[in-house]
From TrEMBL:
Residues 92-231, 235-362 form the GST C-terminal domain. The gene is LOC118417773. This is Glutathione S-transferase A-like isoform X4. Gene3D superfamilies: 1.20.1050.10, Glutaredoxin. Pfam families: GST_C (PF00043), GST_N_2 (PF13409). It comes from Branchiostoma floridae (Florida lancelet). Residues 3-85, 114-228 form the GST N-terminal domain. InterPro entries: Glutathione-S-Trfase_C-like, Glutathione-S-Trfase_C_sf, Glutathione_S-Trfase, Glutathione_S-Trfase_N, GST_C, Thioredoxin-like_sf.
Amino acid sequence: MASDMILYWGAGSGPCWRAMICLEEKGLSDYTSKLISFDNKEHKSDEVLKINPRGQAPAFKHGNVIVNESLAICLYLENTFKAQGTKLLPDDPAQQGLVLQRAVESQNIREKAAFGVLSYFFRTKPEDRTEAMLEEKKKTCHEELQVWEGYLAKLGDGSHIAGKNFTLADVCAFPFIATLVRMGFNMSRYPHLAKYYDLVPAFKHGNVIVNESLAICLYLENTFKSQGTKLLPDDPAQQALVLQRAVESQNIRDKASYGFFWRFFVLTKPEAMFEEKKKACFEELQIWEGYLAKLGDGSYIAGKNFNLADACTFPFIATLVRMGFNMSRYPHLAKYYDLVKDRPSVKASWPPLWKDTPNKDFLKVI
């Protein structure tokens, strides 16, 4: 049914994610997916411009019907496939009004929160940034998120954006909330938004929903033990080590990947704080350097075989490399990265945007 649909989308784009969520919710997953690179200006290619004269993504075509704006795409899909998949617009006029209100209103999260602060840092030269402007952007961001925190507080725990059911409002709002979480935003001051984020499933297998990455990995290993790579060894001592390293790898994310990266690029803080974060990062990586040194060349994180510990650890190491972190001071970690990056599973799951663009140099200075 979706074989005559084509969607041009870019990695990291909230509006593109909206369209993709909607297609999945309506049971139209067999559409033609065309990933484009923003860095390579592929959204300005003739192929995309034929569909979207603004050269923006998402760009969507269904047969001879062209729809480009993300909300318009979602409304088109809901109206065209009403009886299929998730019902995204309720029939009740009052409920429908609320869903549409929140769907349109969610653009404020993107403009005032997700983009308000982030775009200021990524699009403003360091020498042109001012503390006053940063504080203004942060204030606007917090005020906007407080509005949504209030909406969810009124609806009660377990609610979606516009009620008890997942609707168009969630399709439109969730990608921007997820972007903030992805970039390390502290959600602890917004407990209802944090619960909402956890409510939307990240992984679903039949009727089973699993959200946390480690939980997903353990579920897959336990459910498909006899299939593919054995990620948890049978030997109790080996299994304990693998589980220890798998859980422990979160420290790389918290202290290295995010610990100072987010603070360095998004928050203006005193130099002393930055140095403290750098120190914590280096100390954490030195621990992992030591683990690998003890195991010897050619080893994975918890032994001679690739296992759950590597599935949990490698993405955070790869993120540091992607951002230009100098790995020369950690020779064993550098060798480990080279060992794992060419595994078929890693190649297959490599972030699409990383494939098409060179590594960044954000962290080269440290």
